[in-house]
Amino acid sequence: MTDRFVLLAGLLILSILGFMTLGAEGSWSFLLPFRGAKLAALMLVGCCLATATVLFQTITGNRILTPSVMGFDALYVLVLTALVFGLGAAGYAALPGPLLFSLNMGVMTGAGLLLFALLMRGGRGDMVRLVLTGIVLGLLIRALTTFLQRMIDPSEFQTIQSASFARFTFVDRRLLAATALAALPALALAWRMRFRLDVLALGTEAATGLGEPPRRGQRQALVLICVLVAAATALAGPVSTGFAGPSSFFGLVVVSLAHLVTPSPRHAVLLPSAALIACIVLIGGQTVMERLLHLATPLPVVIELLGGLLFLFLLLRKAHG
Amino acid sequence: MIEVKGVSHDMRGQAILRDVSLSLPRGGVTALIGPNGAGKSTLLSLIARLQRLQRGRITVDDLTVGACADRDLARLLAIMPQSSAISARLRVGELVGMGRYPWHGGRPGAADHAAVEAALAQFDLTGLRHRFLDEISGGQRQRALVAMACAQGTDYLLLDEPLNNLDIAASRQLMALLRHMARDQGKSIVIVLHDINYAAGFADRVIALAGGRIVADGPPAEVITPGLLRGVFDTDARISVIDGRPVVVV
Lengths: 321, 250
Description:
The complex is a heterodimer. By secondary structure, chain A is mostly helical. Chain A has one domain: ABC transporter involved in vitamin B12 uptake, BtuC, CATH 1.10.3470.10. Chain A is globular. The two termini of chain A are 27 Å apart. By secondary structure, chain B is α/β, with parallel strands linked by helices. Chain B has a single domain, classed as P-loop containing nucleotide triphosphate hydrolases (Rossmann fold), CATH 3.40.50.300. Helices cover 35% and strands 28% of the residues of chain B. Chain B is built from 10 helices and 12 strands. In chain B, the strands form 3 sheets. A 6-stranded mixed β-sheet of chain B has the order 6-7-8-3-9-10, sandwiched between helices. In chain B, a hairpin with a 2-residue loop joins strand 4 and strand 5.
């Protein structure tokens, strides 16, 4: 197991080196902080989404789900669309970044918590119902978004489209700090939950019998998921495409890879391994796309394509027993 | 001592348990028998706080179920539920190891490893410890689940139909082991059984439930009678007494 982690760490260092040095033109005093901020953003987003997906898969007991089936990313696009619709493209562009960030972060965390609070109320905490309600709500949000986009000025629609893919081209230092402030404590809390997550993964009855009431753990995990996904999305935009489909495959890809590379039921292994792989995929992918292939295609599009194939593979493999 | 006082339980307007009171002193094997839907599993899961208590009061030694800390109860009482669908992909050894969680909270020590080794050996699972749960037979999985409950090292052990999927040799072996644990290690074991003959053969006390009420309670020879089979199970099977033990001729 340790050698696998050494391998992953090596790959990460390699992609970081590639990201920082390849195609470096100009003075280092400019490049280092510029690329450094981008690097920090990529790592933060990777760790957040990987951890959120691990938590979500554990409390739902399902390895092919990711938090974005609950319509988190859709909510981001809705906020964006509503703002452009209400203020116009010029008004939207004039909004200060920190305000936009806090708005996104607040709406996503708030809506997520509200949904969970409503569904977990009265002791009928049923994860399947929660997930299904989330999927339906996600559809509703997407329909609402499409409706608003139909009524919008076509030129203003451009603004939405370019802003609704995850972008790592320019990173606002203040937003980065704000995200870190929200995400780092959540990541630390998730790490502290690692042993309890092992027990929760056994299932409701077994966890209760071992003195780990599942409802409390599920609620805590859901709060962490809300904060992590909201922080990552508010910083970088949805890593899934807001338009293309119901699910983001990024979390699915990295957690499946983590299960493959470091097979262990222990979250003390799974959490860091998934986070490492997420960082490698994001940083390495960005390096290859930007610096080696000189492609303008956003990285999420590629992740979505590969993720879709992996998703089908997982489903079919399961179907064959 | 487990004390159940005035416990009633409804599910969607259907009464599952009606005013059940019962006290189980420490030690011995107690078998719960009764027809399908009598409320045996519900009673067991209420004692082990797998379901929330609606009316009545249950105490285990000095802990009140529902009010005490979950960790404390988990160190005193272990349960093996009827449908233990373990969702995680675990190896047998890892599953049994999880039974020690209430004691170590995630960081197993030497005593925990020793307890796991002992449980694996006791249930003849040492050779299977590196196999995944979905790679072994139903009976082997059942044994692993009982071993996990035993590894929890509690004074009270509740087992809901542990003989499911077990062949006759494994069933007898498990029941003998449970009786040995009750007699020599002072464990108190409550077990839901479908096969009355196993209850007659291995239990010290048999409690029969029907329609959510306790209808008979006592040593096997007193409880298991043709009257019980006709009145409670609604069947005419004959009972013959062999070596002083009632045997249902099916």
